[in-house]
Write a structure and sequence with these properties.
Strand order of the largest sheet: 1-2-3
Radius of gyration: 31 Å
Helix content: 40-55%
Distance between the termini: 81 Å
Strand content: 5-15%
Number of strands: 12
RNA sequence: GGCGCUAUCGUCUAGGGGUUAGGACGUGAGAUUCUCAAUCUUAAAACCCGGGUUCGAUUCCCGGUAGCGCUACCA
């Protein structure tokens, strides 16, 4: 039977269908992102479906975690979330239709028998595929055994010969010999569907036009194609996305560090940076250049939506590079208008239990000064504390290096001069310091470095005189005069 | 083991029958001297191997190798 033409009717309908057996992980997030991008680009519909048919491993907490991750990334869905656990009737019905159509049959083999036979087959060098022994049980006998209460699973009857192929939007034509396909289980003996049944039943029921999912599903696809045909449903367009790997090129796992999207939020990554980074893992604009002729890499979500296409998805797996992510993060933080960055910083403070003791104006000023050198949102609650509160720590190494010898004493004196100053601008503070250095016969750099540590607690900071202006005259004077009592080393 | 997919700098990638094989991250060097986790300049760094097609393959084809995926009454 020839396939019905693929559903290209616009607008497209796509879905992200995570299994709540863990938090939203990086790979899932990227799949969700691509589906979302595709839906938004085409004006289609993005559906969220929770595949929770594995009751043992699924949990509400995981569902909430997945939703949280999607919200953080700004991936809003148009329909759902739908829960497969509440749609079991549909799957049973679909299985029954398959049986009635002669495409599926009850299987009475027990799990133990199956395991044993698989083991034997492997031991004797055969393929551990189901031997189809229940496929030829007479209909009457099967009905009688089920009536007698014998547990039975429903298996799909894979055609004995020929091949099954599909046209993947990313990989092109992919073909499998039917002989290599097992008579897979559709419905377990407890009435719970397996993955193959529930996805196909739902994808048909939800009228999905494009299935964008991880490449780990390529091998599952021919079975599902067969099911679509048995159900006389039009085939969607399949687009398999290559996998994301860890630095050692094995599948990304906890071993490699964070795999949960929320962990990146907790690391102070801003969502747009993460989304931008993720979008370029396994997808490319095809070499879009910026004004300088360099490949563009920073894209707003609007641009991403406009640019996204299935054609740009690459075929090979990609390694998740933390350094590159960190770079995206600094770029985004640096370029955010303060108005946009400030709420994120405040959220970070809240998380860290830190309360700034500054006016809104001072806070805005300090964020403006600091954002070009922030690596993560975390910096605002750690290294940058001194700009927002008087409770900050002096970095011991920086103090040892720059607050040694007679420097503290000089800073106390310098602080008094600043207190008495009638003007307090970047130019005036610098002039004052340099004059003071000359008067004392020492290099200005010594005082500059010492002041930096006394004022910010850090050995690294923006231009000292910009820092002074941000801090204000009284605070500068006070902190310099306190320098002498700071424990050194 | 079987089946499937993939292969350009360390990493993400552009490109494509003839190129100095481009960009970015990271790394090295230099500059700035008020620190560097900032900025600027700069350098090193790749077409997996073997056949074939071709005047010419990194590019097309075949094989190998390697990596990854699937191989459950998990998803």
């Amino acid at each position: 039977m020839p396939d019905l033409p693929p559903q290209q009717a616009k607008p497209p309908r796509v879905r992200f269908a995570p299994s709540p057996t863990g938090y939203l992980h990086v790979g899932g997030a990227r799949t969700a992102l691509f589906n979302w991008l595709f839906a938004r680009h085409t004006g289609g519909t993005f559906i969220l479906r929770i595949e929770d048919t594995d009751f043992e491993r699924s949990s509400d907490a995981m569902v909430e975690g997945i939703l949280e991750g999607m919200r953080w990334l700004g991936l809003d869905w148009d329909e759902g979330p739908f829960f497969q656990s509440r749609r079991l009737d549909l799957y049973k019905e679909t299985a029954a239709i398959s049986v009635a159509g002669g495409h599926a049959y009850p299987c009475f083999c027990s799990k133990e028998d199956l395991d044993n036979r698989r083991k034997e087959a492997t031991a004797s060098g055969h393929q551990p595929m189901y031997d189809r022994r229940c496929r030829h049980i007479a209909k009457e006998e099967a009905v009688a055994r089920i009536a007698a209460g014998e547990p039975a699973a429903i298996r799909f009857a894979v055609p004995e010969g020929g091949a099954t192929s599909f046209d993947d939007a990313v990989f092109g034509k992919v073909e499998f010999q039917n002989a290599d396909l097992e008579d897979f289980v559709l419905l377990r003996s407890d009435g719970i569907p397996t993955y193959h049944l529930s996805v196909v039943a739902d994808d048909i029921d939800m009228r999905l036009t494009h299935i964008i999912r991880g490449a780990d599903h390529i091998s599952n696809t021919p079975k599902q194609v067969l099911l679509y045909r048995a159900l006389e449903a039009p085939l969607p367009v399949f687009a398999h996305v290559p996998l994301i790997l860890g630095p050692d090129k094995t599948r990304l796992s906890k071993r490699h560090g964070a795999t949960s999207v929320i962990a990146y939020k907790q690391m102070g990554i801003v969502p747009e940076a993460f989304r931008n980074f993720l979008s370029l893992l396994g997808w490319t604009t095809g070499g879009l250049k910026d004004a300088n002729g360099k490949d563009r890499e920073i894209f707003s979500s609007e641009e991403l939506v406009n640019l996204f296409s299935l054609e740009g998805i690459s075929k090979s797996n990609a390694v998740f590079d933390n350094d590159k992510l960190a770079w995206f993060n600094t770029e985004y933080i640096r370029n955010y208008p303060v108005a946009q960055l400030k709420p994120l910083v405040e959220q970070e403070w809240k998380l860290a239990g830190f309360t700034p003791t500054r006016s809104e104006k001072e806070i805005t000023h300090a964020i403006e000064l600091l954002k070009p050198r922030a690596r993560s949102l975390k910096d605002f609650a750690s290294a940058f504390r001194g700009y927002f509160s008087d409770e900050y720590e002096i970095d011991a190494a920086a103090a040892a290096k720059f607050l040694s010898g007679n420097v503290p004493a000089l800073l106390v004196e310098l602080g008094a001069r600043y207190l008495a100053a009638t003007e307090f601008t970047e130019a005036s503070t610098e002039a004052l310091l340099r004059a003071f250095a000359e008067e004392k016969g020492i290099k200005a750099g010594v005082l500059i470095n010492g002041s930096r540590v006394a004022l910010t607690g850090q050995g690294v900071a923006p231009s000292l005189f910009a820092v002074m202006v941000a801090l204000g005259q009284h605070r500068v004077a006070a902190r310099l005069q306190k320098a002498v009592v700071q424990p050194v080393g």
